[in-house]
From TrEMBL:
Transmembrane segments: none annotated. It comes from Cephus cinctus (Wheat stem sawfly). Belongs to the biotin--protein ligase family. This is Biotin--protein ligase isoform X1. Residues 740-935 form the BPL/LPL catalytic domain. The keyword Membrane does not apply. Residues 1-15 form the signal peptide. Keywords: Ligase, Signal.
Amino acid sequence: MLLTFFYMIATWIQAWRLSSLRARLNIAFQGPETSRPSITFHTRSPVCTKEETCGDKSIAGIGNGGTEDLLSSYFCGNHNVAKLSDLLWFQGDKCLCTIYPQQKVDVTDWLQYPYGKTLFPLCTYNCTQVGLHQDCKMHVLIEADLKSYNPVVTNKTTKLEDYGLIVAWTTDRSLGLILETDLDHITKFSIALMNDQCFINNGFSLTRIQSVLVSGKPCAYNSDQLNHIHNKKLIGKAQCEAHMKRLQIFSSTARLVSQQRMTIEVEDPPGIFISPGSESLTLQMPTILEITIPGDLSDMKEESSNSPVPSTPPPTPASATAIINGTASRLSQALTNSVDLSPTPYLDSSAILSDTPNRSESQNLHLKDVINIEVASSVNLLGSSSFKSSHVTDEGEGRTLSPKKLPSTSTANYSPSKKLVTGSGNYSKPPNVLIYADSTIAIENVKNVLDATLNKDKYTIYTLSLEEAQNEVWMDQATLVVVCGNVGVDIASQLVEYMVQGGKLLALCSNTLHTLLPSFKTAEVREHELVRFSYGKWKHVRMMHHIFCYQASPAKTKFSQDHEDVKVAAPQTPASANVRDKAGKSHTFHVRVLGTEEIWHTPSILLANLPTSGGKAVFSQIHLEADPSQYEFEESKFNALKQSNTARLEIFSDLLGTQLGMDVSSEPRTEPIYGSAFFLGRHELKLEMLDRLKAKMQPNDLLRMSKLEIQFCDRTTKAAPASEFLLPVMVHQCPDKFSTVEYFENLTSEHLGRLVIYADIMSSSMDVVAGTTLHHGLVVIPRRQTKGQGRKKNIWLSPEGCAMFTLQLHIPLNSPLGRHLPILQHLVAVSIVSAIKSIPGYKELDLRLKWPNDIYAGSTAKIGGLIVNTVMEGLNAICNIGVGANLSNSVPTCCINDVIGWYNKQNATKLQKLSYERFLALVFSEIERLVNVVQADNLDHLYEVYYEYWMHTDAEVTVISPQGSSQEVKVLGIDDYGFLQVEGKDGNIFAVHPDGNSFDILKGLIAPQK
């Protein structure tokens, strides 16, 4: 009874405080919205110094306006004129007050907060589950301290979504969020903060809530692709710092987007695009924003009567269909399953999605003219997103596309089964290392240790999603798969297939061990035990371990417990194990124990190999991937793991190198040293380009790109220090490692390659031209890149000897090539092969093209590829073409000069290997020649050359219908827009496009919806 009485009293007091505070706030909020004060609740961050947290000093600061960071937030544009109105409550270092004038926040350089369940930027369930009163809605600024992360405050965490809808966010010195709420909920929020519930989602310390007037349109981004970043609560300092760094990257990119008013890709993770805002944050903002396209798509028809009448309509992908229908539900599915042709240009959305009444007919960009162009555009869907349209097409009555079939007289028809005879060079697996794990923290840990261990010039590291792991397309594309944690039965069976085919597997504390050795299923797994173990020369190493605890006898019904005195040793590990593949065939793996722990004597590390195929698997019950910082809140474990960290990395390296045959780095990885670039070409041309850029330059001749600042330095300019983000370009100097004489002597073009920006090392040549019109024919040539870009999120390895460049072309939209822009990727790929094979004596070199734009040595070794990013400027397409080709680097696969060497050996010839400068000059000259041919309206010539070199003649591929059924079809050729044309068993000819997988573009092809 007494407890009930006290509970009633406490409830009454809480209700009285709530009603009293609401009444006082209600009085303050009488009158027009613009004349109201701002409510401010402020508390000191728990990481502040003792001097800063003095309660008297806080109130004194508010009273005299001397400490404006306490009175109003620095996020507010008018915080410097804020004056105290009423002090409603204070206690210690917390206070609640009203201030004049009402504080204002411009969210133009903020980001829209995603709607629904999110893991980034915060773990929230952000939706309209809180009922807000329409007559007293308001926006509230939430400010949290990024440095005060505390993972053990879950019992004190205040969930922001309980008090309204989060609509925008940013980070600078602290985390800022805009919450749409009402008077009732801000009152309840204030009461909760008075009761010391000052930690919000993710364990960040809240320092301020403040009602504000909001103006501007926050930037949009494709938030649906971000849920893979974190799927568990942050653990430890390292994960928290990585999360905060990613928040700051997004916010700094948004600030750049708002300045330049253009779409920019986020640096980390790639594939996320931030676009200028299109919707203001009104207090009646709808939950779901649909997309509509002005004008009538049916009016966008082909005008020219001279064009050939196609025979088969190309496919219309889900993304384009969703835009045409304007429905959010179909667009949501399109965003999830968007198709990305490899590699396709980016197109400024304004070129298609705007319909200006005064625009002349000659300026209209017809949808049929941008097939296969990837569109990066801001789309408001459940907050914000961006879509990628692999192609859009005009399906007017009677309009179809005819395939460009192989000419019957073609003599260079390569069979897909033909292998490249390379002597000692046999590359069965591409240099991809794939990671599959049950948590993003594990993925980050594994990736970090792989980055520090493997040869950086030989391997690319990718994360394997659940959907990709269940598919078979990755099996012949990976030289190593690393699995961490638990996997399902279906993926375990995929891993068995992979090893049967000769694959290499490293399983870290994973239940995949049960698939090979089912006897371990009978054991209880004690996770995260700190024990000692031995492996090779490493003895008595203390690390986190998964321990198998076996029953003492068949009669005992319970597993061994910690308090039992008797600990039973594990049964003998079998020397072999039989495993069946999907076809039911049995395979015998040889099993060997490499290391054991010293308490239960169960295996720490096992090696299983399959002699028949060379497949290998290392099973480690040690957490070799876990960084000691993950356990910094457990002092005893943290100290032990720090002492063992060197041994951890050495053991990981030894397992990869000795047991799995990977190429590991013997030297510690060093940071790249950036230097100046050099502007090469005729002096008049250089001055012409610099004069055009003067208006865009900032003081000290700085040109700001989306990811890079460029400083053009003449003889009097003091060059800034070079870095990943700043590139000084010497206008009047020549490089030491690039022969300008040999380059220009071999260059026969009129425009292409006549202006060059060369650097020994830079982040990516694509960064130099991103988002800015520089000069038609300008090329950027890096000897090495630190962040080479490939298709989608792929990485292009850039070791010494790889020939890389980015070429900028300005193509009139009303020209033959401008009307068929997607053909440009084929043209460039053809030019690279043609430039080599056109040299007398080099015609028979086994260099081929894989659709749409990969360059192969024979049929198995990829040695080159390209991407094309395109934006529209007036009546021109500004195309930035990034190319990478292995010229004289034999890793990671092989190179062009290797092919020349093999040909000389087999044919007793003495063909000279190609120098770096000569190769580049020949390629630029050939690209210009083929561009001129196509612009002379001779597109058929390009197709003839393309078919001469491609590797798909009469190839049979599997095509999947929209309903999920599959059929075998024969490849015929490509259509006028570069799509693959195939013929079914029934004689039906149709176009297909890739299914979007990241590994082999021909492994999955999608048929159009009929």
